[in-house]
Amino acid sequence: MEEPEVHPDLEPIAFLLGRWEGAGVGGYPTIESFNFGQEIEFGHNGKPFLTYVSRTWLLDESGNRVRPLATESGYWRPQPDRQIEVVLSHPTGIVEIYIGEVVFHKIELRTDVVARTASAKEYTAGHRLYGLAEGNLAWAYEMAAVGHPLTDHMSAVLKRVA
């Protein structure tokens, strides 16, 4: 089956399309700093949204995979006037709705809604930045959780591999 054309509404975020791989650093007041590997895939089916899947794994000092870390999936939905809505779900029992803005090849997102299951850890807000830097996808994430305000949590630089 032939791949569908990219929906015209996706033009502001079409630079995200593809599979990205790389590494980053993480930390939080409640945990030790760590290095991680990551793979993100943005896809489309011809409709006005991107599909999104991210997988991360802990890396040792030599850059070898130790064990899986977080995974998340969802949909990126461009809106009029370069606004964007992002819906993410996590297997840890958390669902987030982000709203934000696209400015050239930079996207800034803030949580509008966070919902948690009874067994999920306390998580109250997130702030994410994504952007192209010298052809790579760079991102940074702040979170508010377990009694802490928005605090740096993770960042990475990924290269397009497909």
Automatic annotation (TrEMBL):
Q: Which GO terms describe its molecular function?
A: heme binding; metal ion binding; peroxynitrite isomerase activity
Protein's recorded name: Peroxynitrite isomerase
Record's keyword annotation contains Isomerase: yes
- Species assigned in the record: Nonomuraea jiangxiensis
Q: In which pathway does it act?
A: Nitrogen metabolism
Binding-site residues, heme b: 30, 121, 153
Q: What does this protein do?
A: Heme-binding protein able to scavenge peroxynitrite and to protect free L-tyrosine against peroxynitrite-mediated nitration, by acting as a peroxynitrite isomerase that converts peroxynitrite to nitrate. Therefore, this protein likely plays a role in peroxynitrite sensing and in the detoxification of reactive nitrogen and oxygen species (RNS and ROS, respectively). Is able to bind nitric oxide (NO) in vitro, but may act as a sensor of peroxynitrite levels in vivo.
Keyword set, alphabetical order: Heme, Iron, Isomerase, Metal-binding
The record lists the catalysed reaction(s) as: peroxynitrite = nitrate
CDD domains in the cross-refs: lipocalin_heme-bd-THAP4-like (cd07828)
The residues covered by the THAP4-like heme-binding domain are 9-160
User: What Gene3D superfamilies does the entry give?
Assistant: 2.40.128.20
Names of required cofactors: heme b
Q: Which Pfam families match?
A: THAP4_heme-bd (PF08768)
Q: Per the entry's comment, what about the domains?
A: Forms a 10-stranded antiparallel beta-barrel structure able to accommodate a hydrophobic ligand in its interior. In fact, this fold hosts the heme group, which is located in a wide surface cleft.
Where is the motif named GXWXGXG mapped on this chain?
A: 18-24
Domain of life of the source: Bacteria
Q: What is its EC number?
A: 5.99.-.-
Record text on cofactor binding = Binds 1 heme b group per subunit, that coordinates a highly solvent-exposed Fe(III) atom.
Q: Is the Aminoacyl-tRNA synthetase keyword given for this protein?
A: no
**Top EC group:** isomerase
Q: Its family? A: Belongs to the nitrobindin family.
